[in-house]
Amino acid sequence: MADIRQVQAGTQTIAVRKDLRVPMRDGVTLAADAYSGVEDKPRPALVALSPYGKELQALALTMPPQRRPSPMWDGCIEAGDIARVVGEDYVHVIGDLRGSGASEGEHIGNYNAGGVPLGQDAYDVIEWVAEQPWCDGNVGMIGISYYGSMQVLAAAERPPSLKAIFVSGGHFDFYETTYHGGVMWFMPRAAREGRGGDSGWAFTDRITSRMLETYSAEEVEKRVAERLQDPDVAAWPNLVHVLHYPKHHEAWFDIVLNDLDGEWYEERNPINLARNIDIPVYLQIDQGRGWTVDGHIELFETLTGPKKLVIGSYPPMQSRPWVEEHDEMFRWYEYWLKGVDNGIMDEPAVSVFVEGSREVVTAEQWPPKDVEYRSLYLRPRGKLSAEPELLGPEHAAPEGFYQAPLTVTDKVEILSWSTAPFEEATELIGTGAAHLFAEIDQPDTNFILRLWDAAPNGKRQLITTGYLKASHRELDDRTTEGNPYHPHTRAVPVEPGKIEEYVLRLYPFASTFRPGHRLVVELSNDEPLADAHNALLPPDAFHLPVGRPVTHKIYRDALHHSRLVLPFTRRAAEVG
Hints:
Elements: E1 3-9, E2 12-23, E3 29-37, E4 43-50, H1 54-57, H2 82-87, E5 91-96, E6 107-108, H3 118-131, E7 135-141, H4 146-155, E8 165-168, H5 174-178, E9 179-180, E10 183-184, H6 187-193, E11 207-208, H7 210-214, H8 217-228, H9 231-234, H10 237-244, H11 250-257, H12 263-266, H13 270-273, E12 281-286, H14 290-302, E13 307-312, H15 326-336, E14 350-354, E15 359-363, E16 371-379, E17 383-385, E18 399-403, E19 415-418, E20 426-440, E21 446-454, E22 460-469, E23 500-513, E24 518-524, E25 550-555, E26 563-569
Parallel strand pairs: 4-5, 4-7, 6-11, 8-12, 12-13, 13-14
Antiparallel strand pairs: 1-2, 2-3, 3-5, 9-10, 14-15, 16-17, 16-26, 18-25, 19-24, 20-23, 20-25, 20-26, 21-22, 21-24
Helix pairs in contact: 3-4
Domain Xaa-Pro dipeptidyl-peptidase C-terminal: 330-565
InterPro entries: AB_hydrolase_fold, CocE/Ser_esterase, Galactose-bd-like_sf, Xaa-Pro-like_dom, Xaa-Pro_dipept_C, Xaa-Pro_dipeptidyl-ppase/CocE
Protein name: Xaa-Pro dipeptidyl-peptidase C-terminal domain-containing protein
Protein backbone atom coordinates (compact mmCIF):
# COMPACT_ATOMS: atom_id res chain seq x y z
CA MET A 1 0.00 0.00 0.00
CA ALA A 2 1.43 3.34 -1.04
CA ASP A 3 1.94 6.05 1.51
CA ILE A 4 -0.63 8.82 0.83
CA ARG A 5 0.21 12.24 2.18
CA GLN A 6 -0.72 15.82 1.48
CA VAL A 7 1.59 18.68 0.55
CA GLN A 8 0.90 22.36 0.14
CA ALA A 9 1.89 24.19 -3.07
CA GLY A 10 0.92 27.82 -2.59
CA THR A 11 -2.82 27.80 -1.91
CA GLN A 12 -3.19 24.35 -3.47
CA THR A 13 -3.34 21.10 -1.50
CA ILE A 14 -1.92 18.10 -3.36
CA ALA A 15 -2.37 14.42 -2.53
CA VAL A 16 0.85 12.45 -3.03
CA ARG A 17 0.93 8.67 -3.35
CA LYS A 18 4.57 7.91 -2.62
CA ASP A 19 6.60 4.93 -3.72
CA LEU A 20 3.99 3.06 -5.71
CA ARG A 21 5.29 -0.31 -6.88
CA VAL A 22 4.48 -0.93 -10.53
CA PRO A 23 4.91 -4.55 -11.72
CA MET A 24 6.60 -5.28 -15.04
CA ARG A 25 5.82 -8.37 -17.08
CA ASP A 26 9.14 -10.01 -16.12
CA GLY A 27 8.54 -9.63 -12.37
CA VAL A 28 10.66 -6.51 -11.82
CA THR A 29 8.85 -3.64 -10.09
CA LEU A 30 9.37 0.06 -10.84
CA ALA A 31 8.87 2.91 -8.38
CA ALA A 32 6.58 5.86 -9.03
CA ASP A 33 4.93 8.79 -7.25
CA ALA A 34 1.45 10.04 -8.17
CA TYR A 35 0.32 13.63 -7.53
CA SER A 36 -3.35 14.61 -7.71
CA GLY A 37 -6.06 16.76 -6.21
CA VAL A 38 -7.32 15.68 -2.80
CA GLU A 39 -10.86 14.99 -4.01
CA ASP A 40 -11.29 11.24 -4.32
CA LYS A 41 -12.25 10.77 -7.99
CA PRO A 42 -10.73 9.25 -11.11
CA ARG A 43 -8.83 11.61 -13.44
CA PRO A 44 -6.80 11.38 -16.66
CA ALA A 45 -3.13 10.68 -15.92
CA LEU A 46 0.05 12.14 -17.39
CA VAL A 47 3.02 9.78 -17.02
CA ALA A 48 6.67 10.90 -16.87
CA LEU A 49 9.48 8.32 -17.07
CA SER A 50 13.26 8.81 -16.95
CA PRO A 51 16.40 7.71 -15.09
CA TYR A 52 16.83 11.17 -13.50
CA GLY A 53 15.07 10.28 -10.25
CA LYS A 54 11.52 11.01 -9.14
CA GLU A 55 12.73 12.76 -5.99
CA LEU A 56 14.65 15.28 -8.10
CA GLN A 57 11.47 16.01 -10.08
CA ALA A 58 9.66 16.87 -6.84
CA LEU A 59 11.77 20.05 -6.70
CA ALA A 60 9.25 21.46 -9.19
CA LEU A 61 7.03 22.04 -6.14
CA THR A 62 9.63 24.11 -4.25
CA MET A 63 12.16 25.60 -6.70
CA PRO A 64 11.28 28.60 -8.89
CA PRO A 65 12.17 27.91 -12.54
CA GLN A 66 15.80 28.74 -13.40
CA ARG A 67 17.14 29.79 -16.79
CA ARG A 68 20.64 29.56 -18.21
CA PRO A 69 23.18 30.86 -17.35
CA SER A 70 21.94 30.56 -13.74
CA PRO A 71 24.25 28.17 -11.83
CA MET A 72 21.08 26.72 -10.22
CA TRP A 73 19.80 25.53 -13.61
CA ASP A 74 19.67 21.72 -13.50
CA GLY A 75 18.99 20.12 -16.85
CA CYS A 76 17.52 16.98 -15.30
CA ILE A 77 14.41 18.51 -13.63
CA GLU A 78 12.29 17.82 -16.68
CA ALA A 79 9.04 16.07 -15.68
CA GLY A 80 6.92 19.23 -15.72
CA ASP A 81 5.11 21.63 -13.40
CA ILE A 82 3.52 19.30 -10.84
CA ALA A 83 1.28 21.94 -9.25
CA ARG A 84 0.03 23.06 -12.67
CA VAL A 85 -0.69 19.48 -13.74
CA VAL A 86 -2.69 18.84 -10.57
CA GLY A 87 -4.42 22.20 -10.88
CA GLU A 88 -5.61 21.22 -14.37
CA ASP A 89 -7.17 18.11 -12.77
CA TYR A 90 -4.78 15.42 -13.97
CA VAL A 91 -2.82 12.84 -12.01
CA HIS A 92 0.90 13.45 -12.49
CA VAL A 93 2.71 10.09 -12.33
CA ILE A 94 6.52 10.34 -12.13
CA GLY A 95 8.41 7.05 -12.33
CA ASP A 96 11.99 5.79 -12.09
CA LEU A 97 13.07 3.70 -15.06
CA ARG A 98 14.42 0.18 -14.67
CA GLY A 99 17.70 0.14 -12.77
CA SER A 100 17.38 3.74 -11.58
CA GLY A 101 16.24 5.46 -8.40
CA ALA A 102 14.00 3.23 -6.29
CA SER A 103 13.15 0.87 -9.18
CA GLU A 104 14.40 -2.68 -9.47
CA GLY A 105 16.12 -4.25 -12.46
CA GLU A 106 19.26 -3.64 -14.45
CA HIS A 107 19.92 -1.02 -17.12
CA ILE A 108 22.23 -2.07 -19.94
CA GLY A 109 23.69 0.62 -22.16
CA ASN A 110 22.04 3.78 -23.45
CA TYR A 111 18.21 3.63 -23.37
CA ASN A 112 18.63 0.09 -22.01
CA ALA A 113 19.75 -1.13 -25.43
CA GLY A 114 20.52 -4.80 -24.94
CA GLY A 115 18.19 -5.12 -21.95
CA VAL A 116 14.40 -4.93 -21.69
CA PRO A 117 13.19 -2.27 -24.14
CA LEU A 118 12.22 0.86 -22.24
CA GLY A 119 9.14 1.15 -24.42
CA GLN A 120 8.01 -2.23 -23.09
CA ASP A 121 8.39 -1.03 -19.50
CA ALA A 122 6.55 2.17 -20.38
CA TYR A 123 3.69 0.08 -21.81
CA ASP A 124 3.39 -1.81 -18.53
CA VAL A 125 3.48 1.40 -16.46
CA ILE A 126 0.80 3.07 -18.61
CA GLU A 127 -1.55 0.09 -18.47
CA TRP A 128 -1.06 -0.28 -14.71
CA VAL A 129 -1.81 3.42 -14.19
CA ALA A 130 -4.97 3.16 -16.34
CA GLU A 131 -6.30 0.41 -14.08
CA GLN A 132 -5.91 2.36 -10.81
CA PRO A 133 -9.05 3.71 -9.12
CA TRP A 134 -7.63 7.25 -9.21
CA CYS A 135 -7.26 7.13 -13.05
CA ASP A 136 -10.22 7.29 -15.44
CA GLY A 137 -8.44 5.09 -17.99
CA ASN A 138 -7.17 7.92 -20.19
CA VAL A 139 -3.39 8.33 -20.16
CA GLY A 140 -1.03 10.82 -21.80
CA MET A 141 2.65 11.51 -21.15
CA ILE A 142 4.66 14.56 -20.10
CA GLY A 143 8.24 15.84 -19.95
CA ILE A 144 11.02 17.34 -22.02
CA SER A 145 14.25 15.90 -23.48
CA TYR A 146 14.79 12.33 -22.15
CA TYR A 147 11.15 12.33 -21.06
CA GLY A 148 10.20 13.34 -24.60
CA SER A 149 12.17 10.49 -26.14
CA MET A 150 10.51 8.09 -23.71
CA GLN A 151 7.10 9.17 -25.00
CA VAL A 152 8.02 8.09 -28.52
CA LEU A 153 9.44 4.78 -27.31
CA ALA A 154 6.25 4.19 -25.30
CA ALA A 155 3.85 5.13 -28.10
CA ALA A 156 5.64 2.81 -30.53
CA GLU A 157 4.60 -0.11 -28.28
CA ARG A 158 0.92 0.91 -28.69
CA PRO A 159 -0.37 0.61 -25.11
CA PRO A 160 -4.19 0.73 -25.47
CA SER A 161 -4.69 3.32 -22.70
CA LEU A 162 -2.17 5.81 -24.14
CA LYS A 163 -4.45 8.19 -26.04
CA ALA A 164 -1.97 10.92 -27.09
CA ILE A 165 1.50 12.29 -26.37
CA PHE A 166 2.98 15.79 -26.17
CA VAL A 167 6.72 15.70 -26.90
CA SER A 168 8.95 18.69 -26.19
CA GLY A 169 12.66 18.76 -26.98
CA GLY A 170 13.21 15.03 -27.40
CA HIS A 171 16.23 13.34 -28.96
CA PHE A 172 15.35 10.95 -31.75
CA ASP A 173 18.19 9.94 -34.07
CA PHE A 174 20.45 8.47 -31.42
CA TYR A 175 23.59 8.79 -33.52
CA GLU A 176 22.86 12.48 -34.05
CA THR A 177 22.30 12.78 -30.30
CA THR A 178 25.92 11.84 -29.69
CA TYR A 179 27.83 12.74 -32.87
CA HIS A 180 26.93 15.87 -34.84
CA GLY A 181 28.20 15.44 -38.38
CA GLY A 182 30.48 12.76 -36.95
CA VAL A 183 31.89 15.13 -34.29
CA MET A 184 31.46 13.84 -30.74
CA TRP A 185 29.15 15.91 -28.52
CA PHE A 186 29.73 15.97 -24.76
CA MET A 187 26.16 16.52 -23.57
CA PRO A 188 25.40 12.77 -23.15
CA ARG A 189 28.25 12.65 -20.64
CA ALA A 190 26.65 15.53 -18.74
CA ALA A 191 23.28 13.76 -18.72
CA ARG A 192 24.80 10.50 -17.46
CA GLU A 193 27.40 11.72 -14.99
CA GLY A 194 25.92 14.97 -13.75
CA ARG A 195 28.57 17.32 -15.07
CA GLY A 196 27.99 20.90 -16.13
CA GLY A 197 25.16 21.60 -13.69
CA ASP A 198 23.12 18.47 -14.40
CA SER A 199 22.34 16.07 -11.58
CA GLY A 200 22.65 13.14 -13.98
CA TRP A 201 21.09 9.70 -14.03
CA ALA A 202 20.00 8.30 -10.66
CA PHE A 203 21.85 5.01 -11.10
CA THR A 204 23.94 3.18 -8.54
CA ASP A 205 25.37 -0.26 -9.31
CA ARG A 206 22.53 -1.52 -11.51
CA ILE A 207 23.68 -0.12 -14.84
CA THR A 208 26.20 -1.89 -17.04
CA SER A 209 27.97 -1.27 -20.32
CA ARG A 210 26.48 -3.05 -23.27
CA MET A 211 29.93 -3.27 -24.84
CA LEU A 212 31.29 -5.03 -21.77
CA GLU A 213 28.22 -7.30 -21.70
CA THR A 214 28.41 -8.14 -25.41
CA TYR A 215 32.09 -8.57 -26.26
CA SER A 216 34.96 -10.55 -24.83
CA ALA A 217 37.63 -8.79 -22.81
CA GLU A 218 40.02 -9.23 -25.72
CA GLU A 219 37.62 -7.64 -28.21
CA VAL A 220 36.91 -4.74 -25.87
CA GLU A 221 40.65 -4.20 -25.36
CA LYS A 222 41.13 -4.16 -29.13
CA ARG A 223 38.33 -1.61 -29.64
CA VAL A 224 39.68 0.60 -26.86
CA ALA A 225 43.13 0.57 -28.45
CA GLU A 226 41.61 1.54 -31.80
CA ARG A 227 39.76 4.51 -30.29
CA LEU A 228 42.92 5.68 -28.55
CA GLN A 229 44.56 5.87 -31.98
CA ASP A 230 42.25 8.81 -32.71
CA PRO A 231 44.36 11.84 -31.70
CA ASP A 232 41.22 13.80 -30.78
CA VAL A 233 40.28 11.13 -28.23
CA ALA A 234 43.86 10.60 -27.04
CA ALA A 235 44.29 14.32 -26.31
CA TRP A 236 41.19 14.57 -24.11
CA PRO A 237 41.89 13.40 -20.53
CA ASN A 238 38.31 12.45 -19.64
CA LEU A 239 38.01 10.16 -22.65
CA VAL A 240 41.32 8.46 -21.89
CA HIS A 241 40.04 7.92 -18.36
CA VAL A 242 36.68 6.55 -19.54
CA LEU A 243 38.30 4.12 -21.95
CA HIS A 244 40.60 2.72 -19.27
CA TYR A 245 38.07 2.71 -16.41
CA PRO A 246 34.68 2.13 -18.03
CA LYS A 247 32.64 0.64 -15.19
CA HIS A 248 31.66 3.97 -13.67
CA HIS A 249 31.05 5.58 -17.06
CA GLU A 250 29.30 2.65 -18.75
CA ALA A 251 26.87 4.49 -21.08
CA TRP A 252 29.46 7.11 -22.00
CA PHE A 253 32.01 4.33 -22.59
CA ASP A 254 29.61 2.69 -25.04
CA ILE A 255 29.11 5.97 -26.93
CA VAL A 256 32.84 6.68 -27.13
CA LEU A 257 33.53 3.21 -28.55
CA ASN A 258 30.79 3.58 -31.18
CA ASP A 259 31.79 6.57 -33.30
CA LEU A 260 30.06 5.33 -36.47
CA ASP A 261 26.35 5.00 -37.18
CA GLY A 262 24.84 1.56 -37.64
CA GLU A 263 23.09 -1.21 -35.72
CA TRP A 264 24.26 0.11 -32.36
CA TYR A 265 22.23 3.30 -32.78
CA GLU A 266 19.52 2.11 -35.15
CA GLU A 267 18.19 -0.73 -32.99
CA ARG A 268 16.17 1.60 -30.74
CA ASN A 269 16.08 4.64 -33.03
CA PRO A 270 12.75 6.38 -32.32
CA ILE A 271 12.57 7.57 -35.93
CA ASN A 272 12.33 3.93 -37.02
CA LEU A 273 9.97 2.95 -34.20
CA ALA A 274 7.69 5.90 -34.96
CA ARG A 275 6.27 4.01 -37.93
CA ASN A 276 4.32 1.97 -35.35
CA ILE A 277 2.71 5.03 -33.74
CA ASP A 278 -0.94 5.62 -34.58
CA ILE A 279 -2.03 7.90 -31.71
CA PRO A 280 -2.00 11.73 -31.91
CA VAL A 281 1.46 13.28 -31.44
CA TYR A 282 2.30 16.91 -30.71
CA LEU A 283 5.97 17.82 -31.31
CA GLN A 284 7.49 21.03 -29.93
CA ILE A 285 11.07 22.28 -30.20
CA ASP A 286 12.78 25.66 -29.90
CA GLN A 287 15.29 27.07 -32.36
CA GLY A 288 18.96 27.09 -31.44
CA ARG A 289 19.22 23.33 -30.86
CA GLY A 290 19.64 22.50 -34.51
CA TRP A 291 20.08 18.72 -34.37
CA THR A 292 16.91 18.32 -32.30
CA VAL A 293 14.96 20.63 -34.63
CA ASP A 294 16.11 18.30 -37.42
CA GLY A 295 14.99 15.25 -35.43
CA HIS A 296 11.54 16.68 -34.69
CA ILE A 297 10.98 17.40 -38.38
CA GLU A 298 12.14 13.91 -39.37
CA LEU A 299 9.85 12.38 -36.74
CA PHE A 300 6.92 14.55 -37.88
CA GLU A 301 7.37 13.39 -41.46
CA THR A 302 7.52 9.74 -40.35
CA LEU A 303 4.31 9.79 -38.29
CA THR A 304 1.09 8.80 -40.04
CA GLY A 305 -1.56 9.63 -37.41
CA PRO A 306 -2.87 13.00 -36.21
CA LYS A 307 0.15 15.21 -35.60
CA LYS A 308 1.39 18.72 -35.00
CA LEU A 309 4.82 20.33 -35.24
CA VAL A 310 5.58 23.60 -33.45
CA ILE A 311 9.01 25.21 -33.80
CA GLY A 312 9.38 27.94 -31.21
CA SER A 313 11.62 30.92 -30.70
CA TYR A 314 15.26 31.22 -29.68
CA PRO A 315 16.92 30.68 -27.16
CA PRO A 316 17.04 26.90 -26.94
CA MET A 317 17.57 26.12 -23.26
CA GLN A 318 14.29 26.40 -21.39
CA SER A 319 13.66 26.70 -17.67
CA ARG A 320 14.39 23.97 -15.16
CA PRO A 321 12.16 22.89 -13.55
CA TRP A 322 10.53 22.73 -16.97
CA VAL A 323 7.37 24.85 -17.08
CA GLU A 324 7.15 26.03 -20.71
CA GLU A 325 4.62 24.84 -23.31
CA HIS A 326 2.14 23.79 -20.64
CA ASP A 327 -0.65 25.97 -22.05
CA GLU A 328 -0.53 24.16 -25.39
CA MET A 329 -0.03 20.80 -23.72
CA PHE A 330 -3.21 21.18 -21.70
CA ARG A 331 -5.16 22.26 -24.80
CA TRP A 332 -3.87 19.10 -26.50
CA TYR A 333 -4.82 16.83 -23.65
CA GLU A 334 -8.14 18.58 -23.03
CA TYR A 335 -9.06 17.55 -26.56
CA TRP A 336 -7.64 14.02 -26.60
CA LEU A 337 -8.02 12.93 -22.94
CA LYS A 338 -11.06 14.89 -21.80
CA GLY A 339 -13.02 15.01 -25.04
CA VAL A 340 -13.40 18.80 -25.12
CA ASP A 341 -13.61 20.15 -28.68
CA ASN A 342 -11.50 23.27 -28.14
CA GLY A 343 -10.60 23.76 -31.80
CA ILE A 344 -6.97 22.67 -31.56
CA MET A 345 -7.39 20.16 -34.39
CA ASP A 346 -8.88 22.82 -36.63
CA GLU A 347 -5.58 24.71 -36.57
CA PRO A 348 -2.74 24.14 -39.07
CA ALA A 349 -0.48 21.15 -38.41
CA VAL A 350 2.77 23.13 -38.57
CA SER A 351 3.57 26.37 -36.77
CA VAL A 352 6.99 28.05 -37.05
CA PHE A 353 8.26 31.12 -35.21
CA VAL A 354 10.37 33.23 -37.57
CA GLU A 355 13.26 35.02 -35.89
CA GLY A 356 13.83 38.61 -36.96
CA SER A 357 10.29 39.37 -38.10
CA ARG A 358 8.95 37.59 -34.99
CA GLU A 359 5.95 36.38 -36.92
CA VAL A 360 4.43 32.91 -36.74
CA VAL A 361 4.02 31.07 -40.03
CA THR A 362 1.56 28.18 -40.25
CA ALA A 363 0.96 25.46 -42.84
CA GLU A 364 0.17 21.77 -43.17
CA GLN A 365 3.76 20.74 -43.94
CA TRP A 366 7.43 21.57 -43.40
CA PRO A 367 8.75 23.89 -44.63
CA PRO A 368 5.65 26.04 -44.13
CA LYS A 369 6.33 28.11 -47.27
CA ASP A 370 7.60 27.41 -50.75
CA VAL A 371 11.33 27.96 -50.83
CA GLU A 372 13.88 28.57 -53.55
CA TYR A 373 17.42 27.43 -52.85
CA ARG A 374 19.92 30.13 -53.76
CA SER A 375 23.66 30.29 -53.28
CA LEU A 376 25.70 32.84 -51.40
CA TYR A 377 29.34 32.52 -52.41
CA LEU A 378 32.40 32.89 -50.19
CA ARG A 379 34.58 35.59 -51.72
CA PRO A 380 37.95 37.17 -50.87
CA ARG A 381 38.15 39.85 -48.16
CA GLY A 382 35.44 38.21 -46.07
CA LYS A 383 32.69 38.90 -48.57
CA LEU A 384 29.55 36.75 -48.96
CA SER A 385 27.88 37.44 -52.30
CA ALA A 386 25.11 36.20 -54.58
CA GLU A 387 27.69 36.25 -57.39
CA PRO A 388 30.57 33.74 -57.60
CA GLU A 389 34.22 34.75 -57.81
CA LEU A 390 35.50 35.29 -61.37
CA LEU A 391 39.22 34.92 -60.71
CA GLY A 392 40.99 31.58 -60.57
CA PRO A 393 42.98 30.25 -57.60
CA GLU A 394 46.22 31.74 -58.90
CA HIS A 395 44.73 35.22 -58.29
CA ALA A 396 41.95 34.66 -55.76
CA ALA A 397 44.40 32.75 -53.56
CA PRO A 398 42.92 30.56 -50.82
CA GLU A 399 42.71 31.90 -47.33
CA GLY A 400 43.21 29.75 -44.33
CA PHE A 401 43.94 29.24 -40.70
CA TYR A 402 46.22 27.16 -38.55
CA GLN A 403 44.59 25.70 -35.46
CA ALA A 404 46.85 24.42 -32.72
CA PRO A 405 45.37 21.84 -30.32
CA LEU A 406 43.66 23.26 -27.26
CA THR A 407 46.31 21.49 -25.19
CA VAL A 408 48.71 24.29 -26.16
CA THR A 409 46.46 27.29 -26.89
CA ASP A 410 43.26 28.92 -25.68
CA LYS A 411 42.65 30.63 -29.01
CA VAL A 412 40.15 29.22 -31.48
CA GLU A 413 40.85 30.53 -34.97
CA ILE A 414 37.80 31.66 -36.93
CA LEU A 415 37.34 32.70 -40.56
CA SER A 416 34.37 34.96 -41.26
CA TRP A 417 32.39 36.10 -44.32
CA SER A 418 29.52 38.58 -44.39
CA THR A 419 26.87 39.83 -46.77
CA ALA A 420 26.35 43.54 -47.33
CA PRO A 421 23.49 44.93 -45.21
CA PHE A 422 20.14 43.69 -46.51
CA GLU A 423 18.15 46.44 -48.21
CA GLU A 424 14.78 44.75 -47.64
CA ALA A 425 13.41 42.10 -45.32
CA THR A 426 14.66 38.69 -46.50
CA GLU A 427 13.13 35.51 -45.14
CA LEU A 428 14.76 32.07 -45.02
CA ILE A 429 12.98 28.95 -43.72
CA GLY A 430 14.26 25.40 -44.09
CA THR A 431 17.42 23.34 -44.15
CA GLY A 432 20.62 24.53 -45.82
CA ALA A 433 24.02 23.35 -46.95
CA ALA A 434 27.56 24.67 -46.94
CA HIS A 435 29.89 23.55 -49.75
CA LEU A 436 33.50 24.09 -48.73
CA PHE A 437 36.46 23.41 -50.99
CA ALA A 438 39.28 22.86 -48.56
CA GLU A 439 42.81 21.51 -48.34
CA ILE A 440 44.18 20.27 -45.03
CA ASP A 441 47.60 18.92 -44.08
CA GLN A 442 46.31 16.11 -41.85
CA PRO A 443 44.12 13.03 -42.43
CA ASP A 444 41.22 14.60 -40.53
CA THR A 445 39.77 17.74 -38.97
CA ASN A 446 36.42 19.19 -37.94
CA PHE A 447 34.49 21.78 -39.88
CA ILE A 448 32.19 23.84 -37.65
CA LEU A 449 30.05 26.46 -39.34
CA ARG A 450 27.82 28.97 -37.56
CA LEU A 451 25.44 31.45 -39.19
CA TRP A 452 24.58 34.70 -37.42
CA ASP A 453 22.14 37.56 -37.86
CA ALA A 454 24.26 40.65 -37.16
CA ALA A 455 22.35 43.85 -36.33
CA PRO A 456 23.64 47.37 -37.10
CA ASN A 457 24.20 47.98 -33.37
CA GLY A 458 26.64 45.07 -33.17
CA LYS A 459 24.31 42.60 -31.47
CA ARG A 460 23.98 39.24 -33.12
CA GLN A 461 21.97 36.05 -32.78
CA LEU A 462 22.87 32.54 -33.84
CA ILE A 463 20.67 31.33 -36.69
CA THR A 464 21.90 27.82 -37.40
CA THR A 465 24.96 25.57 -37.29
CA GLY A 466 26.61 22.81 -39.29
CA TYR A 467 29.17 20.19 -38.25
CA LEU A 468 31.23 17.74 -40.27
CA LYS A 469 34.21 15.56 -39.41
CA ALA A 470 36.30 15.58 -42.57
CA SER A 471 36.65 11.80 -42.67
CA HIS A 472 32.81 11.56 -42.68
CA ARG A 473 32.43 13.62 -45.88
CA GLU A 474 30.67 10.89 -47.90
CA LEU A 475 27.09 11.74 -48.92
CA ASP A 476 24.26 9.27 -49.36
CA ASP A 477 21.39 9.00 -51.83
CA ARG A 478 18.98 11.04 -49.69
CA THR A 479 20.96 14.17 -50.55
CA THR A 480 19.22 16.90 -52.54
CA GLU A 481 20.05 20.54 -53.22
CA GLY A 482 20.31 22.35 -49.90
CA ASN A 483 19.52 19.17 -47.96
CA PRO A 484 22.62 16.95 -47.66
CA TYR A 485 22.80 13.69 -45.71
CA HIS A 486 25.86 11.74 -44.58
CA PRO A 487 25.66 8.02 -43.76
CA HIS A 488 28.38 8.20 -41.05
CA THR A 489 28.90 4.44 -41.46
CA ARG A 490 32.63 4.65 -42.16
CA ALA A 491 35.48 7.12 -41.78
CA VAL A 492 37.63 7.75 -44.86
CA PRO A 493 40.88 9.58 -44.02
CA VAL A 494 41.67 12.65 -46.08
CA GLU A 495 44.71 12.71 -48.35
CA PRO A 496 46.78 15.60 -46.97
CA GLY A 497 47.31 18.36 -49.51
CA LYS A 498 44.35 17.34 -51.69
CA ILE A 499 41.51 19.80 -52.32
CA GLU A 500 38.23 18.15 -51.33
CA GLU A 501 34.64 19.36 -51.39
CA TYR A 502 32.99 19.08 -47.99
CA VAL A 503 29.22 19.49 -47.79
CA LEU A 504 27.90 20.41 -44.34
CA ARG A 505 24.25 20.03 -43.40
CA LEU A 506 22.92 23.29 -41.94
CA TYR A 507 20.26 22.42 -39.42
CA PRO A 508 16.71 23.72 -40.05
CA PHE A 509 15.99 27.32 -39.10
CA ALA A 510 13.55 30.16 -39.74
CA SER A 511 14.75 33.76 -39.81
CA THR A 512 14.03 37.09 -41.46
CA PHE A 513 17.01 39.38 -41.97
CA ARG A 514 15.69 42.90 -41.51
CA PRO A 515 16.94 45.92 -43.47
CA GLY A 516 20.40 46.93 -42.29
CA HIS A 517 21.18 43.47 -40.88
CA ARG A 518 23.88 41.22 -42.29
CA LEU A 519 24.23 37.45 -42.57
CA VAL A 520 27.59 36.40 -41.13
CA VAL A 521 29.08 32.93 -41.47
CA GLU A 522 31.96 31.74 -39.30
CA LEU A 523 34.18 28.70 -39.90
CA SER A 524 36.46 27.01 -37.40
CA ASN A 525 37.57 23.50 -36.48
CA ASP A 526 36.84 23.94 -32.76
CA GLU A 527 34.11 25.86 -30.99
CA PRO A 528 34.84 29.20 -29.36
CA LEU A 529 35.38 28.63 -25.67
CA ALA A 530 32.80 31.27 -24.77
CA ASP A 531 30.41 33.55 -26.60
CA ALA A 532 26.87 34.92 -26.32
CA HIS A 533 25.28 31.70 -27.61
CA ASN A 534 27.41 29.24 -25.64
CA ALA A 535 26.60 31.14 -22.43
CA LEU A 536 23.01 29.92 -22.86
CA LEU A 537 24.13 26.28 -22.84
CA PRO A 538 25.40 24.08 -20.01
CA PRO A 539 29.21 23.98 -19.80
CA ASP A 540 29.41 20.51 -21.33
CA ALA A 541 27.36 21.36 -24.43
CA PHE A 542 30.42 21.51 -26.67
CA HIS A 543 32.12 19.15 -29.10
CA LEU A 544 35.34 17.17 -28.91
CA PRO A 545 38.17 19.47 -30.09
CA VAL A 546 40.65 18.42 -32.73
CA GLY A 547 43.69 16.91 -31.04
CA ARG A 548 46.31 17.60 -33.69
CA PRO A 549 47.61 20.80 -35.30
CA VAL A 550 45.89 21.38 -38.64
CA THR A 551 46.42 23.94 -41.38
CA HIS A 552 43.28 24.64 -43.41
CA LYS A 553 43.18 26.33 -46.82
CA ILE A 554 39.72 27.39 -48.01
CA TYR A 555 39.40 27.86 -51.76
CA ARG A 556 36.70 30.25 -53.01
CA ASP A 557 37.56 31.07 -56.61
CA ALA A 558 36.22 30.53 -60.12
CA LEU A 559 37.16 26.82 -60.02
CA HIS A 560 36.05 26.19 -56.44
CA HIS A 561 32.65 27.64 -55.63
CA SER A 562 32.64 27.45 -51.85
CA ARG A 563 29.15 28.60 -50.97
CA LEU A 564 26.11 28.46 -48.77
CA VAL A 565 22.92 27.03 -50.27
CA LEU A 566 20.04 28.61 -48.36
CA PRO A 567 16.22 28.32 -48.40
CA PHE A 568 14.83 31.71 -49.46
CA THR A 569 11.07 31.90 -49.26
CA ARG A 570 9.25 33.08 -52.36
CA ARG A 571 7.57 35.87 -50.43
CA ALA A 572 9.52 38.31 -48.26
CA ALA A 573 8.21 38.46 -44.70
CA GLU A 574 6.29 41.49 -43.55
CA VAL A 575 8.29 43.20 -40.81
CA GLY A 576 6.20 44.51 -37.93
